[in-house]
């Protein structure tokens, strides 16, 4: 469970959309099977969303532990088929989570790179 400061409003119409640590969010209620997923509330736009919204785990049918296990096996260099066998899921499931994680990683990369300082060495 991440601190509330790590989250940002997921409502694209909100003036605080995508801004982390603004103080406009609070945890309010639970969702999911077994009520294990926090619901986040934005006081600015009155929008409720799951803590998983905008992540690889959004709409995940697998448990969080299995998704993380799939990602760790791939990170360690295991192939799609062997990862599926080790985790107990199909190769198509592994491929689907790889695709989702790639899209999510690209968005995160652009967010972080947007704030990176420029390299003075390349301007000479």
């Amino acid at each position: 469970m991440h601190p509330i400061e790590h989250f940002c409003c997921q409502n694209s119409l909100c003036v605080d959309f995508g801004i982390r640590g603004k103080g406009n969010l609070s945890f309010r209620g639970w969702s999911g099977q077994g009520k294990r997923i926090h619901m986040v509330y934005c006081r600015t736009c009155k929008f409720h969303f799951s803590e998983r919204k905008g992540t690889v785990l959004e709409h995940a049918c697998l448990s969080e532990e299995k998704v993380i296990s799939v990602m760790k096996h791939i990170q360690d260099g295991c192939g799609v088929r062997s990862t599926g066998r080790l985790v107990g899921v199909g190769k198509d499931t592994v491929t689907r989570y790889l695709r989702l994680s790639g899209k999510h990683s690209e968005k995160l990369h652009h967010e972080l790179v947007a704030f990176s300082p420029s390299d003075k060495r390349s301007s000479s």
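Strands lie at 25-31, 37-42, 48-50. The chain has a mean pLDDT of 83.
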